[in-house]
Fold this protein.
Amino acid sequence: MPLLEVNDLQVEFRTHDAAVRAVNGVNFTLEEGETLGIVGESGSGKSQSVLAMLGLLASNGRARGRAMYRGENLIGLSDRAMNRIRGNRLSMIFQDPMSSLNPYLTIERQMTEVLELHKNVTRREAKKRAISMLEAVRIPEAAHRIGQYPHELSGGMRQRVMIAMALLCEPEVLFADEPTTALDVTVQAQILQLLRNLQHDFGTSIVLITHDLGVVAGLCEKVMVMYGGRVMEQCDAATLFAKPSHPYTIGLLRALPRLDHDGGELTGIPGNPPNMAQPPAGCPFHERCADANGECAVDAPALKAVEPGWLRACHRPVHQITKETSHV
């Protein structure tokens, strides 16, 4: 049985103007010790899918479907039951550590209260374990740093603190929302290596939310590509990079610099993501897709198997997709 199994996850937000369907029928599984990358442009539904599972949607958001964790459906779980799981067995690293950390509390207080709540340990023992975890995420002089406030730390250190907080209770699943976006490339590489090391040490399963396929290539076993609230393609990472089959996936890869190609022009995807308050009929990507036909503008394609373990949502047969193989 998978550690986490998501079926027909849907997220809708009620606004004054219209209902916004942010996520529409997402399905995936996560095994123990596995890393899944959820990829797509801003507004594709990546973060809202995870926030729905953790009970962290905005007050006007509603989730439906199933997200089964250890036999328990996370969708619709009471606040009391969710607080027992969230931060303990399921943890999240948010995108911006400066806005996620409390500027009025020291790092020590923000870390120790997690352990006091979920592990029922003394303040002294909690501090000792917090320092140990800061050392595990390679923060120098951890015993000194733990007494500082977030603004006294660099961006890279704040992100390491967020990772340490998320791992304090040794969760089974770690959700990481764009954990390297605000960092320079050197620190990005350090954070990704840190996640790899911590996964090896703790056996944690990771769901990585990102728009950066380069990050996915370095960390993930499986990939789920989202666009317009739907899953466009889903397979193992090696397959995605070797033979992408959905026009949107191909477009993302063509915009990514690659060391295994000598030169080659980077090409962006024309147009803009859809307005989810007024989504287009048919495939959400058809207005930007060079391979679209009349059927694409009418019917949203179902997610179907190309091969075992490899799914795509596209009306066009794989062999008819324009791949521009000089770069992809």
Q: What stands out?
A: The chain has a mean pLDDT of 88.
